[in-house]
Fold each of these.
Amino acid sequence: MTESFFFSLFFLRALLAGCFLALACGLLGVFLVLRRDAMIGHGLSHVAFAGVALGLILNLMPIIASLLVCLAGSLIILRLKDQGRLPGDTAIGILSSAGMALAVLLSALRKNFSGDLLNYLFGDILAIAPVDIILAIILALLVIAAIIFSYHQLVFMTFDRESAIVSGVPVKRLDRILVLLTAVTIVLGIRIIGLLLITGLTVIPAASALQLSKNFRSSLVLSSIFSLISVASGIFLAYALNIAASAAIIFVSLFLFGAAFFLKTIKH
């Protein structure tokens, strides 16, 4: 009875933190996909992995170390794109490789924490703490606030970046806001989705929403809904079937994408 109670408590924590994280992923994902920055989450997840390894080897809190390294990495990507005149995918690929190489090097230096690294790679819903719920709520509120206060500017720069720059839209500042929020989202998603699959939650629900939405606002709403359904259903399936929550969440999101793609196909 006691064991069941504590497992249920962990389950509720994962569900709460996961739903707020899903909201942030759903909203940010639409901008990332339309800006052709969908893979920035993949690159930052590799950088975050290096931060986790650094935290473990220095006996620091891995999440804090990962957050600091990931935030720095997100700014480096922007700098490479702007001043290095590199395409976005090239800048992401360079930093992604650097992050993974550093993580492999650090893990080779200290072989006794390989088990801990696996938890961060694949997620661990039983590791969800009350502070993770609070951080997920704060992240969701920050994303919502950023979109509300800069909605028209964000939409303008998403669809016509050059005209937005000419019109005086603070494109570089908004770029930094989006990429920093994405970095925080990646790190906070480590507990539930894991570093290897968190990118899927920022990309797949948004791609699903864009199959069905008629305008930009509806794409934001649909992406958030699909993301919430994916996380909630995935955690329920993981709890009921005793499977990995990260895999269940991504498979649900893939199912939703397949359904959305099919509906779009038959409509045309």
Amino acid sequence: MKKTKTLIRTEEIKKEYVNDEVVTKVLHGVSFEIQKGEFVAIMGPSGSGKSTLMHILGFLDTSSSGKFLFKGHDVSNLDDDQLAQIRNEEVGFVFQSFNLLPKTSVYNNVKLPLFYGKETGHDQKVKNAVKAVGLTHRINNLSNQLSGGEKQRVAIARALVTNPSIIFADEPTGNLDTKSGQAIMEILEDLHDLGHTIILVTHESDTANHAERIILLRDGLIESDRAVDQRRSAKDGELKK
């Protein structure tokens, strides 16, 4: 039997925003677990709360109430500096809009997260991350010299370079054509096969079906949480068991 280790556990997570005494409730009590090494898609229409949930899970925001346990530790009430430290050490982000520094080389874009860490050996880590996404031949190119698909590969390498516990991919194929999108999903599948925990945020069912499991949000609540019976494979465009 495959051993599992709980990486994330949420208990009745709620989130509301207050603006000029107007309270907007976004999450209404969300509970689930994610195991180390899982490939999970968080899916839902606009306004479902999926981006807010990702920001909480990625230590970019905090919940209004409820518990968020990461590696068994309650991180619900940490301050901004503590959240930033965990985020820099444990989380990698891949965004729809790439968020690369313009007129900056692939090498230096990927190296950026390492400036905030304490570890050394940056040069080899950067080269390994760039190699993992198949861009060694572009390592000295500027980001504005790359195609959209290549920019997203750089973003994935930047997310990988700190060897994080979780990689969040927020609509990673949203700005790409079909071929480039398939290539990005193939990289994410390969990273999962290597043992990385991937949390994919998307509103597209075709993209979500690359994951092992789909958590569907609607109106701030979990509508369903199910295993994907027939996963999509970016390598051959077919479904895999």
Amino acid sequence: MIEKALKVSYESDVVLSTEDPEIAEVGKKHGALVPFLRPAELAEDHVHSLPVVQHAILEMEKIRGFKYDLVVYLQPTAPLCRVEDIEECVKSLIEEQSFQSAVTAVKVATHPFKMKRVVNGNQLVNFIDQGFEDMRPRQELPPVFRRSGAVYASRRSVVMEYQSLIGDPCKAVFVPEDTAIDIDRPVDLELVRYLMKNY
């Protein structure tokens, strides 16, 4: 992800936030700025992304002596992200002032109207209650998208003042499904390895 971020044509600082000195050294070798280590309290499993990004912004602004205009958060769990997707998110915010954020998005395979939840131990009910069982074919349903998990670009005010990684309105930058794999499980990692090796 560092190498891709460094290829983005817009002037930027590529910063790696980590608490691990070994990861910091790897990041430096690949060209990232790693002038600080993340505090231990921001490196625990339950910690949300927002305070981690805010910490990195404040640390870098102290070092650089100015405030950033835009913040782009790239997740290492989405390594198939493309340089052009990062560029398109940044370009959207520069050229379209009405947008507060831009994120990568991909069409979902399973429509929410087909999704279920379980109540009373084993009773299957519609996740979205339309008052009927929706048996329409997929092609007749309105398209639905999800964030791909790769690129979150926002104005600084969204992250620091409005306390969010995504502002409103937010532009969708559509990406191909094969670039939108988010590594959450071992099988996701194996799939990414396969795709990187074969494509």
Amino acid sequence: MTTVQLFITCLVDSFYPQTGEAIVSILRRLGLTVDFPPDQTCCGQPPFNAGLRTEARPIVEHTIRVFEKTDGDIVIPSGSCAHMIKHGYPELFQEDPHWLPRAQLIGSRVYEFTEYLVDKLGVTDLGAHWNGTLTYHPSCHTLRGMHIDRQPRILLANVRGAQIVDLPHSEECCGFGGIFSMEHPELSAEWLKRKIGNLETTQSPMLVVTESGCLMHIAGGLHRQKKQQRVIHIAEILNQR
């Protein structure tokens, strides 16, 4: 039986455990054994993106050491964390002949969740059911960093009972952008306002994302504005039977 490693990400671990549970359920249903290295922590993206390379390095080294002890593909419910490991790690160690090959080897095992289902397993239909309308927001790192867009869309297209409607200006950032939302709160708030306005245009009660950062940011905006729409990670949709 094939074994995969689940890198859970900080936000899923701390705020959205139901996303992780849905992913485990789906992968097990597909006949995979899912392991969870308990020593895993943050991937190191926040300090790395802030330019704090020295501070990011021990976090990154720890992650590499943890997953070097494991076998199999590494599945991540986040395009931004997957992008960090696949691309940020080699950049961090580009002049380090000891750590660079280790970072590249870990990166070669990494897949964003929908990418893993569609491109590695060849699965596009999980037999999921959802009664109602859905619209999809492609997160920035997933879309532009990992070049993943077809995969989540085809998985959603095969959800029985769901009516998929296009989100206007879907490729625009929601305004989270990790530390961007803290460094530029005014811009972040304006982009969030536009994203929520576009969501309302669809008249969809549910926005689907692949990234918990976007989920938290948009859901928070909807809550503060007392809107009725909800945001959900795609894994939870795909786990609906």
